[in-house]
Amino acid sequence: MGEIICGTNDPVKRGDLAPRTLTDFHSNVFYYYRGASLSEDQQERQLEDNTTKALINTLEHCDPSLCQTFLTHVLERCVTNPDADSPTCWYLNTNTEFRFLLQRATLPGGGMMGKPKRLLLALVPRKHQEDSQSCFTAESVSRPDAWIYGDGFAVLIESKVVGGLNAGQMERHRGILSPDGVKPREARMTWAEVFHCFSNMQKNLNERDQWLVGQFIQFLEWSGMAGFTGFKKELFDYFRNPGDEDERKWVRESMTAFGERVSAKIKDLGYPKYDVGNLHRQDEHCWVAFGKQDYRNQAHQTVAVNSNGIDVFVNVELKPATDELKAKIDKNPDGFKMCMLKLAPFTVILEERKQNRASLYDYYPVASISFDDSVDVGIRDLGFGYLSAVLAKLPQPYLPYFKLVRTIPRKDILGERFQKDSGDALIDKIVEIMRSLDELVRFIND
Fold this sequence. Notes:
Elements: H1 11-14, H2 40-61, H3 64-77, E1 99-102, E2 117-124, E3 146-150, E4 153-159, H4 167-177, E5 185-190, H5 191-202, H6 207-222, H7 233-238, H8 245-265, E6 273-276, E7 285-291, E8 300-306, E9 309-316, H9 319-331, H10 333-341, E10 346-357, E11 360-371, H11 377-393, E12 399-409, H12 410-413, H13 416-419, H14 424-445
Parallel strand pairs: 2-4, 2-5
Antiparallel strand pairs: 1-3, 3-4, 6-7, 7-8, 8-9, 9-12, 10-11, 10-12
Helix pairs in contact: 2-6, 5-6, 8-14, 9-10
C-alpha cells in the first residue's frame, strides 16, 4: 500500500529475462520485400497482388481436395445471389481437375463456352463495406485478379485488401462471366474468413500440404489480413526488442483488429469510439482507448499491451477528467471508496503529467497502490486516504494522471485457455473486465 514507484518493472531492463529474436517475416515463402519508395496506392496494389498470388499458389500446389473443399465452402456459405441462373450444385469432387490463372482478362479456349457453372468471388477486407462508385468507366479494362476453372465451371476472383469493391468494375466482371446472358452466382468472403477456412482445413492435409497452408495463413496473419487471431508470444516480445518496420506495422495492425473486435462487444456501454495509439519504435506498449467521441476529456477505458501482458484500465488524464475525478472524491468519498472496492483486485497508479510540447507529455511516477480482498480494513482505509490526499495535492499546472488497472499476465495469455480459439476467450475475458470497470467510469463521468 502506498508504494512509491522506483526503478522499472520491466524484467528485461532489470536483467531477469534475455531479449528475444522475433521470427523473421521474410522466412515465410509468401512474404515479400516492400519497396520503401512506393506510394500508398502502390503498396496497396502490391499487397493485393501478392495476397491473391499466395492464395492461388497454395490451391494450385496442394492436393485438389483443398480447392474442392474451399470452393464448396464458398458456394454453401458465401453466395449473395441465390436466384442466379448458374446451377446451385457444382458436384466438385477429388477427380475434378482445377486450373488456375492470374491477372488474365478472360479464359483461354473460348472463354465461357461450355462452362454453365459460373461464380464471381469477391475477397474483401470487410463483409459489409460499401462499394465504391468512382474511377471505373464503361471503357475501362476489367482485369480479374485470378481465375479458378475446369471442365464446366469458371470462378472469377476479384481481390481487395483495402476499401470496398468498385461497382463499375464488378459490373464489367459480370459481363465477362455472362456473354450469353447467363447470370453468374456471386459470393463475398473476407480475408479473415479465408484465414479461418484454411486453418480448419489444415489439420486434414498431408504433411507437405499442411506446411504450405501453414505458410499461407501465417502470411495472412503477418500481413494484417486475418483479423484478430489472438496475441502470440512474438507480439509481447516486440516490446522487449523492437524489430523492423514490418514488425512494427504488424503489431499495430494486430491492435487495430483487436480494438475492432472489442468495440463491437461493448457498444451497449455507450463507447461508440475506439482509438489505436501511435506505435513508435521506442514505445514499451501499444494501447487502444474506448469511449465517447471526446473520450480524452472524460474517464474512459484503455487496453494496453506490453512485454509482460495486458493492462485493462480506467483512464483519467486530461484536465476536465481529472477535475471531475477530484470533485467526485471531494463530494462523495465513501461512494468513491465503495465503487472501487467492488473492483478488487486492482492497482491504482498515479503519475505527474507535465506537458513537454504540443500534444506531447512526460509522465513521472508518484505512487502505485494495490488493493485486494485480503487487505486489512484499517490499512485499506489508510490507502484510500493517501490516494485522495495525493490527488488533491499535486500542484497545478501538473495534472494527476490516474489509472485503475487490472492486469492479465503474459503467461496466462500464452496458456492453453487463451490460445486455443483464435483469441475468442481472451476477448471475452477483457470485455468482462471492462464491463466491471464501467461502474467507476460512470461514477466519475455522471
